[in-house]
Amino acid sequence: MNAQPIQQNAHLTEFRHDFAIIASWLPFGAKVLDLGCGDGSLLEYLKASLEVRGYGVEKDDNNWLAAMSRGINVIQMDLEAGLSEFEDQSFDTVILSQTLQAMHNTQGIVQEMLRVGREVIVTFPNFGYWRHRAQLMEGRMPVSKNLPYEWYDTPNVHLCTINDFDQFCVDCDIQIKERLVLTDNKPITFMPNLLGSLAMYRLKKK
């Protein structure tokens, strides 16, 4: 059962198209682990639209408290330490939404996600987007909606392009079940590595 956009209540986050796409990749009532869950807005959306059994992992104190205030089951821990607290295949889906670029051990966290979840959803800003390239040609580090930080205060350590991540999946023997590329909430199918600003992947072990 796929999710439909939910009616907005005062306590729910402003509707985000990427949330609806993630929901469409989940079965109704799925058991979900959201890594780097932030303030818990994605899990809140998934609970309201799909009645998922959701759990979050978050390191930041303020985000952890915000997620708790939303009624989200959230564990405060550092993802870089791994997911040893979770058993193999203990979740239907593990999600890493726009956090991949802030991870130091990128390969390690993706492999751990594939161990813990039957499927994995990863989303990240595409560094190959043409607006980012244009800013680099001007001699500036890119700043955009999906990359909102200046060079001196960014948490991002491993920015990548769509082509980079496709090759990463080949090198790590990861199956891409589905890939969707967006710009301004619209799907991009022509030259996605140049024209797409946000990449969304649905993955599993081969």
Description of the structure:
This protein has helices at 17-24, 41-50, 61-69, 106-116, 130-137, 162-171, 192-195; strands spanning 31-35, 53-58, 73-76, 91-97, 117-125, 174-183, 186-187, 198-205. It is of the alpha/beta class and 206 residues long. It has one domain (17-205): Vaccinia Virus protein VP39 (Rossmann fold), CATH 3.40.50. The longest helix is centred in the middle third of the chain and has 11 residues, at 106-116.
User: What number of structural domains do the residues give?
Assistant: 1
Q: Considering DSSP H and I runs of 4 or more, what fraction of the residues is helical? A: 25-40%
SS summary, helix count: 7
* Alpha-beta content class: alpha/beta
Spatial strand arrangement across the major sheet: 3-2-1-4-5-8-6-7
CATH class: Alpha Beta
Residue share in β-strands: 15-25%
